[in-house]
Amino acid sequence: xxxxxxxxxxxxxxxxxxxxxxxxxxxxxxxxxxxxxxxxxxxxxxxxxxxxxxxxxxxxxxxxxxxxxxxxxxxxxxxxxxxxxxxxxxxxxxxxxxxxxxxxxxxxxxxxxxxxxxxxxxxxxxxxxxxxxxxxxxxxxxxxxxxxxxxxxxxxxxxxxxxxxxxxxxxxxxxxxxxxxxxxxxxxxxxxxxxxxxxxxxxxxxxxxxxxxxxxxxxxxxxxxxxxxx
Length: 230
Description:
By secondary structure, this protein is of the alpha/beta class. The chain is built from seven helices and eight strands; from the N terminus they run E-E-E-H-H-H-E-H-E-E-H-E-H-E-H.
């Protein structure tokens, strides 16, 4: 068991839609789609099977409501490495009163007005964070790699950082690809401005995310590798 060494920096008196733990290094780990129910996709599939998409179009912004287990993976990797962690407590398919956005997909440009994005902005402007790692999940498509490193066309992080990420995973015998099948979303595009701030998306295949998987340790090892150069 690991002792929680970070400092709780979130406001414990109000609801904000996220939890936060202060880090001792300048790495921030998040999982923007880490909260929600995995069964949502089964409901959507049944709606499509019945030909009822038209009746539920406003309620079903996407097929999936969560990147299964990425919330836990991000949290444990951050705690193990004394990194900052900010994680949502709202699913990406939810609608939130008081926000002028169609849903709570935090990896879209319109998410800039959410409290979570504003908090990350504060950390970046205050130079508390120099590297952002956003953990996501992808399906078990046979032609896809085990891990996709999303860099928005090699623009959201330095060549050196990207090279070290790929080499780290390859050393562990993972099949790794850059920006395939995903180039990354709005978060890394917005905040990834090297050399001042770097941002990466890490897409983990579904077969890496299961009970007793050691993927939290793998991700913690990556953070240790990268934080040593920040």
